[in-house]
Amino acid sequence: MLPPGSTVGILGGGQLGRMLALAAARLGFDVHIYADEADTPASRVAARTTVAAWDDEAALKAFAADVGVVTFEFENVPARTAQILGQAGAPVRPNASTLATAQDRIDEKMFLASVGVPTTPFAPIAAEADIAPALAQIGAPAILKTRRMGYDGKGQTRIAGSDEIAAAWATIGGAPAILEKVAPFAHEISVIAARGIDGDFAAYDICHNVHEHGILHVTRIPSITVPATERAAVSMTHAVADALDYVGVLCIEFFVLPDGALLANEMAPRVHNSGHWTEAACLTSQFEQHIRAIAGWRLGPTTRLADVEMTNLLGAEVEAWENFAADPDVRLHLYGKRDVRDGRKMGHVTKLMRR
Amino acid sequence: MLPPGSTVGILGGGQLGRMLALAAARLGFDVHIYADEADTPASRVAARTTVAAWDDEAALKAFAADVGVVTFEFENVPARTAQILGQAGAPVRPNASTLATAQDRIDEKMFLASVGVPTTPFAPIAAEADIAPALAQIGAPAILKTRRMGYDGKGQTRIAGSDEIAAAWATIGGAPAILEKVAPFAHEISVIAARGIDGDFAAYDICHNVHEHGILHVTRIPSITVPATERAAVSMTHAVADALDYVGVLCIEFFVLPDGALLANEMAPRVHNSGHWTEAACLTSQFEQHIRAIAGWRLGPTTRLADVEMTNLLGAEVEAWENFAADPDVRLHLYGKRDVRDGRKMGHVTKLMRR
């Protein structure tokens, strides 16, 4: 167990790193942020920051020597970065093989299938010529996504029919891709859960998510999903966490079909936007839970004290902060980002409803 | 209203500054700590830190130029420091006259009396020769306290009879003092409340406090006090806040006598140890409330979601952190202090009980 007073290393300086850093501080840890740009939201609440490239071996080694454990706020950390840190003696949690799996949409789907978690039908796309036969096989409409580096609806586009193939291929820049059948879902949910070093597992209540333009807009708890489906989603997440020998907070997004069947959509090996409400409404937030897990501590209770609705503040929506701050029914959380950009996650509000 | 992205200046680097800084970050503020020593708990979660003496005019002016508002985590900030900051254009909240009143036990008691808040009988002590007549007048047992700079039972000693006068005078170092009659109280409570720039006022539920060796040990909510007494305590606190044109979180500790009468014991013009439970159990913590108030924002709701018991971890008690971390009924908060010293406040645990 990493004792209080130790230093937690976090790769990435965005809002997830910031919220992890705030939670680590509450447990008595120092935080060292490693980011490839200066003045990030996370570095402004951390004891130390290293600003260096992801492949800067000297900087990574110095960082590894300063911290007791390393975690990350985004899954696109280069595998080589994690490898250098591990070789320099800093345990990386979740582990490097999890990172590799989550970085490639096809590897991820094949892994999920291997542990009995169903996904939407898909086909690998290496060249434009692969798309037409794949579309014929899985059926339209489908979504073409880059295999790697996508998030928040970036690097993906919809294909309604074969006449849209060329445009779609151009849209994603002709990168190695995956074609996924559009799931005829009734709604979307996510499981936010944690697994400890000793294999302990704890899930939060299921999140009901509503996306807009590929970006999470609202998360509501309790979800509208029936208990049996919720239990199945948690059980699949548990199987995934065990199979990866996972340590930390893990999120799996699922489509719920009209008949209640589940299809895993995406896995995030980190704290997740759909779990932000836990900070306002749970005894242990997802951020504290993640820090507890990677530090080798016992997981905290995931008990929820209120019904909640979390809404993202995207881009210029944050300019209404004064209204949110004055609303007695919501808790406002802002990320300290310097520039407002279209669709950028600037903060969130959590509405709490007494049960 | 100070908008998110602005910088909040905090004088002092201890655990109260740290918890204020964490709350300010959640509202999107940067924090600049000013402290007279390096590597403090607060500076490790702040964007910037100035390490300089309280009378370093150049450092204070540079600090004032960098921040949108200044507040403090302890009331013994020199009056001259606040004056320099104010003259350099940084509003100091709460205001300088509040600071002056709270720094002197006699000024404080006279002020409280002036707004109709009763205190225990007292007498000013300028020299050892003043003690015997004062003791005869107010009656033994009494407590001799330095007028200035006391906290957590420091700078004070009990006098049971006139034969203890010389020793008591020596114990407090012969400093200007106050002799206070020991109140025959049934129990002790505190009011944690906030007043906004617009005069808005909001109190948290009354805290029932148990001290050991002059240091707060446990705070429980709800208190065991009858509603009429609680209302009177809040009403007195409201009168005090209005009279001071107070901005921020204010704490008044009261003795509750067996007949339910109240005597104000001490006033703290800042967030207070007996309000730490608000972070675990309220929609708005006392730390966020203070930041909201000094930033000119509307006060947040003080709604409490659970019954609570907050226990301080003093000195070596923190070494049992592993047990507290593993207890599903408590939330652990550690302050990141480097050295364990006898009686030093190292952290606290808040036990939450569903109502």
Major sheet of chain A? 9 strands, antiparallel
Q: What pair of chains forms the biggest interface?
A: A-B, 46 and 46 residues
Low-confidence stretches of chain A: none
Which H/E pattern describes the elements of chain A? EHEEHEHHHEHEEHEEEEEHEEHHEHEE
CATH topological fold name of the largest domain in chain A: D-amino Acid Aminotransferase, Chain A, domain 1
Average pLDDT figure of chain A: 95
Given the structure, what is the number of helices of chain A?
Answer: 11
Counting structural domains of chain A, the number is 3
* Number of E strands of chain A: 17
CATH H-level homologous superfamily name of the largest domain in chain A = ATP-grasp fold, B domain
Estimate the helix proportion of chain A, in percent: 25-40%
What is the CATH architecture descriptor of the largest domain in chain A?
A: 2-Layer Sandwich
Please give a structural write-up.
Two copies of one chain form a homodimer. The first copy, chain A, is α+β, with helices and mostly antiparallel strands. The first copy, chain A, folds into three domains: 7-92, Rossmann fold (3-Layer(aba) Sandwich), CATH 3.40.50; 121-181, ATP-grasp fold, A domain (Dna Ligase, domain 1), CATH 3.30.1490.20; 187-353, 2-Layer Sandwich (D-amino Acid Aminotransferase, Chain A, domain 1), CATH 3.30.470.20. The first copy, chain A, is built from eleven helices and 17 strands. Chain A has helices at residues 15-26, 57-66, 79-87, 96-102, 105-114, 131-138, 165-171, 227-243, 278-281, 286-294, 321-326, and strands at residues 7-11, 30-35, 48-51, 69-72, 122-125, 142-146, 156-159, 177-181, 187-195, 201-203, 207-212, 215-221, 248-256, 262-268, 307-314, 330-334, 345-353. The longest helix of chain A is centred in the middle third of the chain and has 17 residues, at 227-243. The two termini of chain A are 36 Å apart. Chains A and B meet through helix 1, helix 11 and strand 16 of A and helix 1, helix 11 and strand 16 of B.
